[in-house]
Amino acid sequence: MNSSATSDLYRDITDFAHTTPSWVQHLAELWTEAGLLLFGVLFIAVWWYARAAPSRAVAVAVLAPLATAVAYVCSEAFKSVVDEERPCRAVAGAAASLVPCPPVGDWSFPSNHSTIAGAAAIALALARPRLAFFTVPMALLMAFSRVFVGVHYPHDVAVGLVFGAVVATLVVLAATRPVAALAETMRTSRSGLALLLAGPGDEDRPRGRHADAAGGVGRQDHPTRAGRR
Question: What pLDDT, in 10s, does the model give residues 44-70?
Fold first, then answer.
């Protein structure tokens, strides 16, 4: 995309950023990185919760961070092909970025942070659909913060969000079946580590608890277990 297409919007956002109170600016600087940590915490929580659910739910929960990592690698490869300079150096007359401008060679398009945010938001929503009400606004705010602090064009973050979401969805859909089969095998193992990772499943759960634990893609009972109920 031609960088000049969103340069004016970039100037407007960075000008606005400089009119906000200092605590808002510091919060935006913090959120660009803290959002990544919060997604990491959610990955762990969703996996732990899914251990008491059918194997497909465990598969989707495990794939969520892996799909996000794949999206990041694809984004990084994409950046090396496009070679778009950062707006904090390229846009004439723009306000100074709130954070140090990344060095030359750390290209702008697409935004890796936004790619990770988009991938994580959708992957977590596939594992636990109700989380979409939290993860999607998280991702949007994280993407906006990258423009707000002055290190990305608006089109960098928009494409990053969509790109991450698409890649994560494809990875989860493609890999859920084999990973679920692996989780089912691990649940029959005598290895303590295997049982810790895959969880006990839902055979011993009181009926009605965590009814939507499998969520979205993972919401499907194992046929042999269903027959014993």
Answer: 998 888 877 777 888 899 899 999 999
Nearest to 182 by CA among 72, 71, 66: 66
Cis peptide before 87 (omega within 30 of 0): no
CA distance 107 to 71: 17
Q: 89: Cβ–Cβ under 8 A, 6 or more apart, which residues? A: 101, 104
Radius of gyration of the chain (CA): 21
Q: One-letter amino acid identity for 192?
A: G
Percent of the chain exceeding pLDDT 90 equals 39
Backbone angles phi, psi at 8, to 5 degrees: -65, -40
The reported pTM is 0.81
Give one word for 13, left, alpha or beta, with left for phi > 0 and alpha for psi -120 to 50. Answer: alpha
CA proximity to 88, closest of 106, 74, 76? 106
- What is the C-alpha to C-alpha distance for residues 18 and 40, in angstroms, rounded to an integer? 30
- pLDDT tens column, 143-153: 999 999 989 99
Q: Which two tokens stand for residue 228?
A: 């014993």
